[in-house]
């Protein structure tokens, strides 16, 4: 059994995509980040960065005590290694997957996240910041579109992998990121292939049943965007 500490964000969706694809038994523990539930002491013991997702694997492969992990990329890699699924087992294929997983973690996610903030949530509109992150999101879409233009079905080749699971949820809100998928035809085809997967549909149906209200509103914006070192030190 996997205990999944989760909210309905792109990073949260990554893990439900994997668990639904792999058929691993799991239990969701919702962590409503708009209400500050990520600061609960019991959650911080698992995720000291006060961010979702996090997991506790009650039956790790070494047969020892339960193991907890935070950071969505680390969780995907752990689950792939645990199940020996959704990551190639040969040297070159494995590293092809890992490098694109890191590309998402270091590029697409952070840049699209800043895009979301300055386009959707910033209390004052800053033209330079908006243009900076919208353009960088566009550049990253272009990188992935070009990579997919060689006829491959998925990011790491012919097989669906954790690289796809990591990136797909960050493309779902493309309209909010001011991106037009029609300008990225190879990316668009890839996106549609993943959207059509039954496990993808189950994961997103699950999300809609857990969170029926916007996470960010006037009351929650301070919780989400007003953190500094004192948040950790208190």
Structure in words:
There is one protein chain. By secondary structure, the chain is an alpha+beta fold. It has 2 domains: 2-85 and 213-233, 3-Layer(aba) Sandwich (Glutaredoxin); 91-196, Glutathione S-transferase Yfyf (Class Pi), Chain A, domain 2 (Up-down Bundle). The protein is 55% helix and 8% strand. It is built from 10 helices and 4 strands; from the N terminus they run βαβαββαααααααα. A 4-stranded mixed β-sheet has the order 2-1-3-4, covered by helices on one side. α1 (10-22) packs parallel to α3, α4 runs antiparallel to α5 and α5 (127-147) packs across α7 (185-195). The two termini are 33 Å apart.
Question: What attributes characterize this protein structure?
Answer:
Glutathione_S-Trfase_N; Glutathione S-transferase Yfyf (Class Pi), Chain A, domain 2; Thioredoxin-like_sf; four-stranded mixed beta sheet; 8% strand; Glutathione_S-Trfase; alpha+beta; 10 helices; transferase; Glutathione S-transferase N-terminal domain-containing protein
């Amino acid at each position: 059994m996997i205990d999944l500490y989760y909210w309905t964000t792109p990073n949260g969706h990554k893990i439900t995509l994997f668990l639904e694809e792999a058929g691993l038994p799991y239990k969701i523990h919702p962590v409503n980040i708009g209400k500050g539930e990520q600061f609960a002491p019991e959650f911080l013991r698992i995720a000291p960065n006060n961010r979702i997702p996090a997991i506790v694997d009650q039956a790790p492969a070494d047969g020892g005590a339960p193991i907890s992990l935070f950071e969505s990329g680390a969780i995907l890699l752990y689950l792939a290694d645990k199940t020996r699924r959704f990551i190639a087992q040969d040297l070159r294929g494995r590293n092809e997957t890992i490098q694109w997983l890191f590309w998402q973690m270091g590029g697409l996610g952070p840049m699209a996240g800043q895009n979301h903030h300055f386009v959707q949530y910033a209390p004052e509109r800053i033209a330079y910041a908006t243009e900076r992150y919208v353009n960088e999101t566009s550049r990253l879409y272009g990188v992935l579109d070009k990579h997919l233009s060689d006829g491959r079905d998925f990011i790491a080749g012919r097989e669906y992998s954790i690289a796809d699971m990591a990136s797909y949820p960050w493309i779902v809100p493309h309209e909010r990121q001011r991106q037009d998928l029609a300008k990225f035809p190879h990316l668009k085809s890839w996106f549609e292939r993943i959207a059509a997967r039954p496990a993808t549909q189950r994961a997103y149906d699950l999300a809609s049943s857990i969170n029926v209200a916007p996470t960010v509103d006037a009351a929650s914006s301070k919780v989400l965007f007003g953190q500094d070192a004192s948040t950790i030190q208190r």
